[in-house]
Amino acid sequence: MMITAIVRFPLPQGLSPDEVKKAYEHSAPQFRGAPGLVRKYYLHGADQTGGGVYLWESREAAEAMYSDAWRQRIAERFGTPPTIEYFDTPLIIDNAESTG
């Protein structure tokens, strides 16, 4: 069964949307080709919440990515460690992949 992880952390106040995007672009290479990662969506909330929604092949793959060192990098970059919630993902609808 696939696993969805929702990662959240407060972004520093005053960061513009362009600055947030640049910070995310800087982190993107570590996720390209990551074992077990199917898809990642970067998040930027109006309340300056940052994070991502990840679809993983397994919980083990997700936990391997979210190591203590990874959590520390988030804390150093954004000022606080992330919160991570895991959800079983029994069904996925992907309209972008549909060929009606």
Report on this model:
The mean pLDDT is 94. 29% of the residues lie in helices and 32% in strands. 11% of the residues are buried. By secondary structure, the protein is an alpha+beta fold. The chain is built from 3 helices and 4 strands. It has a 4-stranded antiparallel beta sheet with strand order 2-3-1-4.
Instruction: Please summarize the sheet with the most strands.
Output: 4 strands, antiparallel
Order of helices and strands: EHEEHHE
Distance between the termini: 26 Å
Instruction: Estimate the strand proportion.
Output: 25-35%
The low-pLDDT segments are none
Structural class: alpha+beta
What does the overall shape look like? globular
Query: Helix fraction?
Result: 25-40%
Short recap of the structure:
This protein has about 100 residues and is α+β, with helices and mostly antiparallel strands. The protein has three helices and four strands; from the N terminus they run E-H-E-E-H-H-E.
Helices and strands, with pairings:
Blueprint: E1 2-10, H1 17-27, E2 37-44, E3 49-56, H2 59-65, H3 68-78, E4 83-89
Antiparallel strand pairs: 1-3, 1-4, 2-3
Sum up the structure in keywords.
100 residues, alpha+beta, four-stranded antiparallel β-sheet, 4 strands
